[in-house]
Amino acid sequence: MSKHTKKMPDHIAIIMDGNGRWANKRFLPRVAGHKEGLNAVERTVQTASAIGIKVLTLYAFSTENWSRPSDEVHFLMKLPIDFFNRFVPQLIEQNVRVVTIGTIEDLPQATQNSVNRAVELTKECTGMTLCFALNYGAQDDLLRAFQTIQSKELSEPITKETIAAHLSTHVLAPFQAPDLLIRTSGEIRLSNFLLWESAYSELYFIEKAWPDFTGDDLKQAINHYMHRERRYGGLFKGGK
Ligand code: IPE
Ligand code: IPE
Ligand code: MG
Description:
The protein is an alpha/beta fold. About 40% of the residues lie in helices and about 15% in strands. Helix 1 (about 20-25) packs across helix 2 (about 30-50), helix 3 (about 70-95) runs parallel beside helix 4 (about 110-120) and helix 5 (about 140-150) crosses helix 6.
């Protein structure tokens, strides 16, 4: 048997980075990069769902992104509304189910309404799960999980499964952990994304900024993944 994994990733997570630099390079305001980034989201969702990816998680807004100038934050809060207004019919046609991770309750009401509507309208879809990380931070998510566990005063000892079950990514089970984690724009860090879940993810970094990311870039990342050897601390046994 080949030493390398031949299995497609079930769950791909993407840190969609580089929108601002993409725009600056073109002498455009940063928000033009965010706007263009929506087209990359459309391409990526389309490709991922067509090739049978089970879960695609997209990091759209972090708990730290509130520290940006208020007009940029305001624009970013409107983006999900634009996105879902434009793409919900396509998502339904592609049988894509939308879910979210992160603290949605702290988003502006109009953003929450739009997100909740997309979740509701696609809840019967049985194809790919498209998970938006919105107001998401892994430390925040872990903290909330621990606080909930503490408040339950469980009689059983806490296990790894207890923790995983209290993370917001639990909605993605049985594919809670990303097999492949991609970051665009050349930064080589996780920026508070899926810290627990990415313990054994294969990481892939690409120089291109997010608005330039294409379906072929996604396929190339998957191809790299399929040539990786996943060992989980043990010795290679084949499979994924
Ligand atoms: C990613 O692009 C989108 C968000 C974080 C919301 P950036 O806005 O971080 O773009 P750069 O990294 O400044 O180029
Ligand atoms: C990570 O990108 C967050 C998202 C892509 C939503 P950032 O641009 O916020 O991360 P840093 O600041 O470069 O670490
Ligand atoms: Mg960035």
